[in-house]
Amino acid sequence: VGGTAAAAGLGAKYFKYGPKLDDPLRVGIIGTGDEGNVLIGAPNPDYTDVVAIADIRPYSRHRAFHGDWYSPSAHGARPGLLAVYGDREGWKTESDARKHVKVYEA
Fold it and tell me: Which residues of the chain carry a pLDDT beneath 50?
């Protein structure tokens, strides 16, 4: 983990990013199953902003917000939008998050 954090810091320095972007890259996640849910927690929230998710499965959409609680390692890989962005954005509930994150069911 330390090497990953160090590499991320070097990338930001190399590309002359500050500690946080004023206008982070807005992204949408199409398919929030196992791998798509990993993508929610993978990018640095200082540089990205998930503004849309899409999945046909209600449980996958739920997990996109709340994370995967099947096991500690599953939750570590798939923490969910509330865990990744909640503190920064002031989201306490899924309803709060849905005011910012557009949800597509098809």
Answer: 1-6
